[in-house]
Amino acid sequence: MKIEIDIKSMLIGFLGAALLVSVISFRGAEEQKAGKFQAVVSEKAVVILDTETGAYIIAPEIRDFGQVQWVKGDFYKTYQVGRDNKKGDGK
After folding, report:
1. Closest CA to 57 of 79, 37, 33
2. How far, in Å, CA of 60 to CA of 72, rounded?
3. CA angle, corner 71, sides to 69 and 74, nearest 5?
4. 67 contacts: CB under 8 Å, gap ≥ 6
5. How far apart are CA 41 and CA 49, in angstroms?
6. pLDDT at 45
7. Which of 34-38, 52-56, 75-79 has the highest mean pLDDT?
């Protein structure tokens, strides 16, 4: 049994496979949901924020051999009692 594939059939197969891969691979930006937790890491501190509840934890500094002092808080409560620190407001 001898199988022959002509150029036209091979080209249609490759184009069909490329179309299938591109449809599966690329998603619109509206389909991607932001994660529940957002983290910011710097040389001196780590902040992890729960974007759904506003709860956060901060590691203000990393101490000897990786020991961390975590500070818990709630963004919304902190925001309510916080003071506006804009420059030039005269207060």
Report:
1. 37
2. 11
3. 165
4. none
5. 12
6. 81
7. 52-56
Distance CA 67, CA 13 (A): 57
pLDDT, tens digit, for every residue of 64-82? 666 677 888 888 787 777 7
Neighbouring CB atoms inside 10 A of 41's CB total 10
CB 46 within 8 A of CB 59: yes
Question: Among residues 34, 35, 77, which one has the least CA distance to residue 55?
Answer: 77
Token duo for residue 14 = 């490759």
Tokens read off for 56 = 């956060």
3-state secondary structure of 69: coil
The C-alpha angle 22, 23, 28, rounded to 5 degrees, equals: 105
